[in-house]
Design a protein that fits this description.
about 80 residues; about 80% helix
């Protein structure tokens, strides 16, 4: 069964949008543009503080996971080697 042009365009748009949403840089850029258009200065500052705290938490978590991976790779402090 052949697709009509409208159906082909819809499928193509859906695929394009899915790829755009999968790219974090695109999502980040769109969020920043929306924030600049729709938020007051105080709202932007509050959001920026929340994002900075979240980034810090992710950094700490990544550091802990990195330490854990290193211990597992090297056998250091491994519970089975006590």
């Amino acid at each position: 069964m052949a697709l009509t042009n409208a159906q082909k365009q819809t499928r193509w748009r859906d695929k394009r949008n899915a790829l755009a949403q999968a790219n974090p840089d695109t999502v980040e850029r769109e969020l920043l543009q929306a924030a600049e258009r729709e938020m007051s200065d105080q709202e932007r500052i509050a959001l920026a503080e929340k994002l900075a705290d979240l980034a810090k938490d992710f950094l700490w978590r990544a550091h802990r996971l990195s330490k854990m991976a290193h211990k597992l790779r090297t056998g250091e402090d491994h519970p089975l080697q006590r």
